[in-house]
Design goal:
mainly beta, two-stranded antiparallel ribbon, 230 residues, 47% strand, TTHA0802/YceI-like_sf, 10% helix, Lipid/polyisoprenoid-bd_YceI, eight-stranded antiparallel beta barrel, Lipocalin
């Protein structure tokens, strides 16, 4: 069993303890601040896109089946056009002061089977709708790499596409992401991966895996652990 987890949640680039010890029959994979989450749309005059500067979420594995969550905060989206933040705040559009996040709950899936799509539920603007995400998985223990894409209609979530003067925002938003999740062990941490796997993660994805006495997992996670758990 992973030791000294204390039910930590990897969020906002750090590990925040919330008290309960993790169940012994499940494994938690914490999201890394690697990869990207992008949102893109169109207007009748130009296209626009934004990218999240922080990633939040986790995967939970139990009995070979995985569930997961991704959380995207509007405040963490950097857009390529000025003034988008002010538009998102408008009460007659996204109203992100009242509805600050987009959350994606991933249904049961098995990364080792490399599913080409998975079912999920997306919550935005007070509405929740089922979606299907086109996916690619790569499982390089202790890391799960997930690449995915999907499109949504704003009107499906009770959002009227923004317009100003002659400019009209299209109804469809496209989301693309490449995210990495990593598990770690502090008890019985005598696990090893091949030099080839470690080199691939370091070279391709800039992820460093530590195989030390008392710790096996990603270096980024160890850096964010509370001092008593390092």
């Amino acid at each position: 069993m992973k030791g000294l987890i204390l039910g930590t949640l990897f969020a906002l680039g750090g590990l925040v303890a919330f008290g309960a010890e993790q169940d012994s029959d499940q494994e938690i994979y914490y999201i890394l601040q690697k990869g990207f989450i992008k949102v893109a749309g169109t207007t009748n005059l130009f296209d626009f896109k934004g990218q999240a500067v922080r990633h939040e979420g986790q995967l939970v594995e139990k009995d070979g089946s995985y569930t997961g969550k991704l959380l995207l905060r509007f405040v963490d989206l950097n857009f390529d056009l000025p003034g988008v933040g002010e538009v998102l705040e408008r009460a007659d559009y996204m109203n992100d002061k009242v509805y600050p996040t987009i959350s994606i709950d991933l249904d049961h899936f098995t990364p080792a089977k490399k599913p080409t799509e998975i079912k999920a539920e997306l919550a935005m603007h007070g509405a929740t709708r089922p979606i299907t995400i086109a996916t690619q998985f790569e499982y390089l223990p202790p890391v799960v790499k997930v690449t995915g894409s999907f499109s949504i209609k704003q009107t499906d979530f009770n959002v009227k596409p923004y317009r100003a003067g002659l400019m009209k925002v299209g109804d469809i938003l496209d989301v693309q992401f490449k995210v990495f999740f990593c598990e770690y062990y502090t008890e019985n941490a005598n696990l090893k991966i091949s030099a080839e796997t470690a080199a691939k993660l370091a070279t391709d994805d800039k992820i460093s895996v530590l195989m030390e006495k008392g710790f096996f997992g990603c270096e980024e996670i160890k850096k964010n652990l509370p001092s008593g758990q390092k």
